[in-house]
Amino acid sequence: MLSRKDEVFKLLNSVNGKLTANDVAEKLQMDRANASRYLNELFKEEQIEKLPGKPVLYQAFTQADVKSGIGGTHSAFDRLIGSAQSLKVSIQQAKAAILYPPNGLHTLILGKTGTGKSLFAECMYKFARESEMVGKKAPFVSFNCADYAQNPQLLFGHIFGVIKGAYTGAEQTREGLLAKADGGILFLDEIHRLPPEGQEMLFTFIDKGEYRPLGESQAVHTAQVQIIGATTESPDNFLLETFTRRIPMTITLPPLAERQLEERYQLIEFFLGQEATRLHQTIRVHRQALMAFLLYHASANVGQLQRDLKLACAKAFLHYKTKATNYILIEQDDLPIYVQKGLLHLKDEPEKMNRLIDVNKTIFKFYDTSEANDIAIEDVDDVYQAIQTKADQLMKEGKDQSELEEALYMDVDQYFHEYMGQLPTQQSAKDIIGPEVWELTDQVYHLAEERLDRKYNEKMRFAFALHLQSTIERIREQKHIVHPDLNNIRKKYSKEFQAAIDISGLLEQALGIEIPFDEIGFLTMFLTEEVVESIFTQEAQVEVIVMMHGRSTATSMVETVQELLNIETGTAMDMPLSMEVKVMYEKVKAKVKQLNPTKGVLILSDMGSLTSFGNMMTEELGIRTKTVSMTSTPVVLEAIRKASLGRGLEDIYQSCQQLFENKYKAQILRTKPTKNAVIFTCFTGEGVAEQLRARVAPVIDESKVEIIVLQFLHKEAFRERIDQLMEEYNILAIMGSVAFQYRDIPYFSALEVFSDGGLDIVKRIINDEVPYEQLISSLEGNLKEVDSPEQLVYFLRKIISELQVQMNLVLEPGVDIGIILHLAFLVERMKLGGVDREFPNIDEFTKKHMIEMQITQQMMENINIEYSIIVPQSEIAYLTQMMTANKVITKEQ
């Protein structure tokens, strides 16, 4: 008697067509859920074919399908998203490599991190089985060469096998991967990490089908194995020419940025379907969040897209479990800042976006259905389980909703990164990380404990060993890393920084590499108890202090927010106009001491001297601070809400900045109005503003530049007025008694305008529009790889302006034009793949101008992202040199 599953299989083979789970259930009079389960089991056993779409269709394999290979309608590759579009050529190459007689072609898969090289290799294996080029039970053996790259003997032993006694520690004979893969496929990921002698051993096997395990002196072993290698690097740089000649097929997988928007939507739909299945619930996504995922720059490609979606789902699940929401909903606020920045590109492909995302819908649903997933969902012990377990525990303890949210939110990022990073356990890590790294780790902490008179536990040593492993690889692969807060680390942890310098010398001598200064900053963090402990322990809440001019402005704002949120987080500090600044500062400092913040202080201020309090308190009290100026009620609401949830200082700060900055960043490159204007402002619109006007008017050509005097009573109203004026005028500068940094408009204080040389700088800023217009005109016919020279010039102008602010300098007249011209042609050259030039004595220059190089590096990231290039370190040094060598005056702090 046939089993129910056999009945389903027989039905599909008897029907000349496609059936849904409902069709099968009706024809065989069974429950639809059971029909779906049997169909999926048959599909996983590769006895039937499943066609993606809604509804999911199933059909039996035909003999023609199996034997035709390339000509067959369906194959393992058809389940890949993009199989008929961006991956079409790659799949044709892969099929040719598998079907080439007599035993297929050895293949090298090229692609950046996260492009799906491992999955593609698995599809090649499945296609080989479908087309009967290998047997149904042929092995597919996967191995990552990077796992043992620090220990060549161990690496070779894994691939070729080991004879007992071949080397110290080889206590028994062990067959290698070639033996295990006999009759099938061996997939070697990160094959560029295979040393030259290993490559020679492998191409000997490719030539003759013979190999010798380590320690074997007589017997020759044979195997029939097709090799598929994968690498993120250029083969010419890391693989022997004699080796690559023996790999006749090279397949390149496109990065996510080069794949169609429709494919990215399908990927998002697929990954969210997986998460919905894990959770057994529908996942809802707000329109803004979905558009951000479609448009953001995922530097690690499909792999990063999957990780970022997983994180968003984890945070949405957290809100749901703490009953902050009634269902699982991903909102824009749940996304990292770099994902949210995808919304800045909304205007890039409006037609495709409107076609993909229904303009009439706000919430999009992704359903729990195992039929939509080809991959079994087996990882039960994941981030969701961790949240669920802890939520259950806290509920038993009687925690209310706000306490649950606070306790769990502080854990979710840690749970997520541990899970998604798939860090090995300490024991298994010791098997993967070479003994050289563990030995160096012991030396590092022996030196640190001696110099700093403190003890470091095993958890810190383990974390450092993982970090050191990746650092060595990164430096040897010449990949640059920037520490975002190097100068503060150096000042705040001077003893640890000095110890880190000594440690870097130890590492340089032991490894034969040069440790860059930014890396010394990271080494310092692993020596500092409070920083390292913060990785593994929960911190207290960020303190939010709202400071405003006026007798009750701050108090009123904070009380409003506290009432709206029904919480007590947040401190208000009012500054009557009669109060002296130094008195206010002492009052705020005393309050901060009383609060004793361990997680940092976020200062929300309105204007003037209050905006400088944060930096002073950081220096004086040694606490972490961030300051957001020109604060509004929505900003206070966002800051206090996130602080109450236990968010970190940087996270809260970025969210506050985003509220009123993001929409302007997208407009930096807008076409400028034809009329120019300069704005003078003060509280009355008469006193200081009129004096400034009298000072500056003689250097203004009023036939080309209009003078506008405005009263500054409230920043929001003033900002709205500026927005209105910008629709009509290109505002060259704002000058006044109230600090007002807005968009990319230069601001000059009264002190700067009246200082020696200040008027000359103002004159140059106001009258430099003609040179920029001439520059744009001259570039129009000379830049072939840049779509809009005008946009490039204004973008670079913003970069140079920001560099002057960050470096605390002002360039000589005309130098900025020259630098912009230099950068414009640099962008053109880099997009054409031009070879970068050397910078003489770059190491010495970098050490001398460490902070300036760091600032320039960070600003160049904007160019890298905007124009899809990588500005080399030598050009960053040249730009830093141009900036520092051509300064005319140092700005007042």
Automatic annotation (TrEMBL):
Keywords: ATP-binding, DNA-binding, Kinase, Nucleotide-binding, Transferase. Residues 80-314 form the Sigma-54 factor interaction domain. It comes from the Bacteria. CDD domains: AAA, PTS_IIA_man. One of its GO terms (biological process) is phosphoenolpyruvate-dependent sugar phosphotransferase system. Residues 432-537, 787-893 form the PRD domain. Pfam families: EIIA-man, PRD, Sigma54_activat. Residues 541-667 form the PTS EIIA type-4 domain. InterPro entries: AAA+_ATPase, P-loop_NTPase, PRD, PRD_sf, PTS_EIIA_man-typ, PTS_EIIA_man-typ_sf, PTS_IIA_man, Sigma_54_int. GO terms for cellular component: membrane. GO terms for molecular function: ATP binding; DNA binding; kinase activity. This is Sigma-54 interaction domain-containing protein.
